[in-house]
Design brief:
It contains two helices and twelve strands, in the order αββββββββββαββ.
Length: 209
């Protein structure tokens, strides 16, 4: 696999395992499983981040809940067909897993670098209190002609800067993965609480081709 392809999507998260492994799928006889880890923010809140792990990387029959782990890999997406439409599902694809005694002081417990292309115009808006926000959708290339589609959110002057991006613009982003809950309306009387994942952007720049 091209190193350049790996360099354009790098994630490191350190957190506590908060679920058991659940089977996801199999590729060429290799089983992949999902597990959730809780990653602390600088504020008192946490992000619950799904991680996809190969059975060749770790013993997926073990229960590692309450253990602290460091995961390095890539942030990936795929489309899951449900309710007559496709839903974008995001997770960290683990390349390496290491158990750590505790979250290191001052370590960046949630860090992501992405390099990709704008696949639609940014959505720029202001909150009622005047805070500027811009939503981006970045296509990040993967080997064999595939791409991951990663939603990103910018604030303040980054949002103002990003609002001028054109479709197809080559962009590099530094930030963190965050989770947030929202309520999905299923029918007139039914709702469901779901979790969305996105990259909260701390730095971004356009790359000249």
């Amino acid at each position: 696999m091209s190193d350049k392809i790996i360099e354009n999507n790098q994630v490191t998260v350190i957190g506590t395992v908060v679920s058991e492994f659940t089977y996801s799928h199999e590729v060429f006889g290799e089983g992949f499983y999902m597990v959730d880890i809780l990653v602390r923010r600088l504020s008192s809140s946490n992000d619950r981040i799904p991680v996809m792990v190969s059975e060749r990387l770790i013993d997926v029959t073990e229960d590692y809940r309450n253990r602290c782990i460091m995961v390095t890999g890539q942030f990936r997406s795929y489309n899951r067909h449900e309710e007559q439409r496709n839903r974008l599902v995001l997770s960290v694809f683990a390349r390496e897993i290491e158990f750590v005694e505790e979250e290191p002081d001052g370590a960046r417990t949630n860090h992501i670098l992405l390099e990709g292309y704008m696949c639609k115009r940014p959505v720029y808006r202001k909150t009622p209190l005047g805070r500027e926000i811009a939503d981006l959708l970045l296509a990040v290339n993967r080997p064999y002609g595939k791409s991951d589609y990663i939603p990103c959110i910018c604030w303040g002057r980054n949002a103002r800067y990003a609002s001028g991006f054109e479709v197809g613009e080559h962009v590099r982003i530094l930030g963190r993965i965050q989770s947030r809950e929202y309520v999905k309306k299923l029918s007139e009387i039914e709702t469901e609480t779901r979790t969305a994942y996105e990259v909260s952007v701390s730095k971004l720049e356009c790359i000249e081709e």
